[in-house]
Design brief:
The complex is a heterodimer of chains A (100) and B (493). Chain A is mainly α. Chain A is built from three helices and two strands. Chain A has a two-stranded antiparallel ribbon with strand order 1-2. In chain A, a hairpin with a 2-residue loop joins strand 1 and strand 2. By secondary structure, chain B is an alpha/beta fold. Chain B is 37% helix and 13% strand. Chain B has 15 helices and eleven strands. Chain B has an eight-stranded mixed sheet, sandwiched between helices. Chain B has a three-stranded mixed sheet with strand order 1-3-2, sandwiched between helices. In chain B, helix 4 links the parallel strand 2 and strand 3. The mean pLDDT of chain B is 97. The chains are: A mainly alpha (100), B alpha/beta (493). Chains A and B meet through helix 1 and helix 2 of A and helix 9, helix 10, helix 11 and helix 12 of B. Chain B: It catalyses: L-glutamyl-tRNA(Gln) + L-glutamine + ATP + H2O = L-glutaminyl-tRNA(Gln) + L-glutamate + ADP + phosphate + H(+). Chain B: Belongs to the amidase family. GatA subfamily. Chain B: Heterotrimer of A, B and C subunits. Chain B: It is an enzyme of class 6 (ligase).
Chain lengths: 100, 493
């Protein structure tokens, strides 16, 4: 499989990456080179092989359903959560207008 | 008094406990070495006050007999670990100025055991790279030089390049690294130091900036195998905050160290004899085999038939997970924001990410997004996960015939800056020996074995069974004792 400029533009949109025409042009051969290389996996017979999702066997566990379980991150730390925000107003993250 | 920065972590610990020197003297020596090392670009942030404050606590603790395992030892922390109130940027412009209000579990454990912090260590952006050249801070320069008089600037490897250079240059007695596809082991090999990636899940990933979550694993880098055992013991352990954390006791690895390998079978995978690898590296591998035999081990040939497919598998899975993990950098909650005049939220996301990520990170986000996109998910991502299952099975079958596996760490010695940046594939191939163990979640370590004809370090790589860090450390110790590697870079910085 190979990509063209239209595909690269589409993928960039999916990835939320603004890209100039020059960047798109440059990425086409780079991605094709890499995708051509990974295509060798097609040689491997994987019929009947389950895709590996967890590399070390262990049961998925759930955390205790407790607010404030962790004093640093559990809750009631609004100011800390907002401390690194590029724009915080009235105790919220502020973003460009979403609804006209 | 000997130059404290030339001692191993173990020597510093034991000397401090014996009263040969104070923790303040240790911290002062390392702070001075760090301050004088700008030419290496190993540290992105220096925290000398932290190292001194922890040293004073350690000195007081020695008076009161209340010592902790790492009291008196200042460490360097890779910039991937969230450190409370101290810049944590993952080597990226998109996180410039980010000061986490929390501490990663691993660095918190080191602190709880008495360690101080010298500063944050430079790294490839989001740990994506094998030469440290993708860092937004510019590359770390290896303290090593070729002996050809050419004076070329060399890479310390990556992504834990700042960590490796700091240990090699005496800017920290021990450091944290992280390894997704070789990011602890390859830089350790390039700089003549020791580094271990434990079994996936041994070290909590909580508070470590995510790259590829099913692969990322923290580990220590230091001068010796014993140093690594000491640090790994502190870093490991169950963490309820990480859903993939292993709920298993942490063995007393340092206490369990033994280089007697009688009864151990060492597997040599025939598929790791790869065309184009320099003779010197294969010769060192043979030397490693001889050393392990000398330690009492028997050598068996094994087969890992899917070795050839490990790298392409990795370069689907890691970018796929990265594209998902890095979706959080959107200019809303932390880090950089670029909001084009009159643009909507989508425009802000796209502009922020375009401005904040470097070329390699964008490349991997693009690959990852592509292989996860509708129509290609099964052909690429599911296929890679199936091949990953086969790679893991290869190891399981091999470990029926052997207890440990010995290979070279990297297919070359350290290369020069800019030598490989124009060809992503050539760069990716640098992790050819390291990636399979990562895909299988196995513990693996690099130990320095010798120097090549240009005077640069080469590493030997040991892979163990799941949870058998002790076996890996012990075989590493056997090599270390026999290699007698004591070469150090000549100070030029």
């Amino acid at each position: 499989m190979s990509v063209d400029t239209a595909t690269v533009r589409h993928v960039a949109k999916l990835a939320r990456l603004a890209m100039s025409d020059a960047e798109v042009e440059a990425l086409v051969p780079e991605l094709n080179n890499i995708l051509g290389w990974v295509d060798q996996l097609g040689e491997v017979d994987t019929s009947g092989v389950e895709p590996l999702a967890t590399v070390i066997d262990q049961k998925l566990r759930l955390r205790d359903d407790v607010i404030d379980a962790d004093p640093l991150t559990g809750g009631n730390v609004r100011d800390k959560v907002l401390a690194n925000a590029p724009d915080a107003q009235h105790g919220f993250f502020a973003v460009p207008k979403v609804i006209e | 008094m000997a130059d404290l920065t030339s001692l191993t972590l173990t020597q510093l610990r034991d000397g401090f406990r014996a009263g040969d020197f104070s923790a303040r003297e240790i911290a002062t020596s390392f702070n001075a070495a760090v301050a004088a090392s700008k030419a290496l670009n190993a540290y992105t942030v220096e925290t000398p006050e932290d190292a001194l404050a922890c040293a004073d606590k350690a000195d007081a603790a020695r008076q009161s007999g209340d010592l902790k395992p790492l009291s008196g030892l200042p460490l360097g922390i890779k910039d991937l670990f969230a450190t409370e109130g101290v810049d944590t940027t993952s080597g990226s412009n998109i996180l410039k100025g980010f000061k986490p209000p929390y501490e990663s579990t691993v660095s918190a454990k080191l602190r709880a055991d008495g360690a101080g912090m010298l500063g944050k260590l430079n790294m490839d952006e989001f740990a994506m790279g094998s030469s440290n050249e993708t860092s937004a801070y510019g590359p770390v320069i290896s303290p090593w030089k070729r002996n050809d008089g050419g004076n070329a600037a060399l890479t310390p490897g990556g992504s834990s390049g700042g960590s490796a250079a700091a240990v090699a240059a005496g800017l920290a007695p021990g450091v944290t690294g992280t390894d997704t596809g070789g990011s602890i082991r390859q830089p350790a090999a390039f700089t003549g130091i020791t580094g271990i990636k434990p079994t996936y899940g041994r070290c909590s990933r909580w508070g470590i900036v995510s790259f590829a979550s099913s692969l990322d694993q923290a580990g220590p880098m230091s001068r010796t195998v014993r140093d690594c055992a000491i640090l790994l013991e502190s870093m490991s352990g169950f963490d309820p905050k990480d859903a993939t954390s292993l709920d298993a006791p942490v063995p007393a690895w340092e206490q369990g160290l033994s280089s007697d390998l009688k009864g151990k079978r060492i597997g040599i995978p025939k598929e790791y004899r790869i065309d184009g690898v320099p003779d010197e590296i294969n010769a060192l591998w043979d030397q490693g085999i001889a050393w392990l035999k000398d330690a009492g081990a028997t050598i068996v040939e094994i087969s890992l038939p899917h070795t050839k497919y490990a790298l392409p598998t990795y370069y689907i899975i890691a970018p796929a997970e990265a594209s998902s993990n890095l979706a959080r950098y959107d200019g809303v909650r932390y880090g950089l924001r670029e909001a084009p005049e009159g643009g909507n939220l989508d425009a802000m996301y796209a502009a922020t990410r375009a401005a904040g990520f470097g070329a390699e990170v964008k490349r991997r986000i693009m690959i990852g997004t592509y292989v996860l996109s509708a129509g290609f998910y099964d052909a690429y991502f599911t296929k890679a996960q199936r091949v990953r299952a086969l790679i893991k099975r290869d190891f399981a079958e091999a470990f029926e015939k052997c207890d440990l596996i010995l290979t070279p760490t990297a297919p070359s010695a350290a290369f020069g800056l800019k030598e490989k940046t124009s060809d992503p594939l050539a760069m990716y191939l640098n992790d050819v020996f390291a990636v399979p163990a990562s895909l299988a979640g196995l513990p693996a370590m690099s130990v320095p074995g010798g120097l090549d004809s240009q005077g640069l370090p080469l590493g030997l790589h040991l892979i163990g069974r799941e949870m058998d860090e002790q076996g890996v450390l012990n075989a590493g110790l056997a090599i270390e004792e026999r290699a007698g590697f004591s070469a150090r870079p000549e100070k030029w910085w």
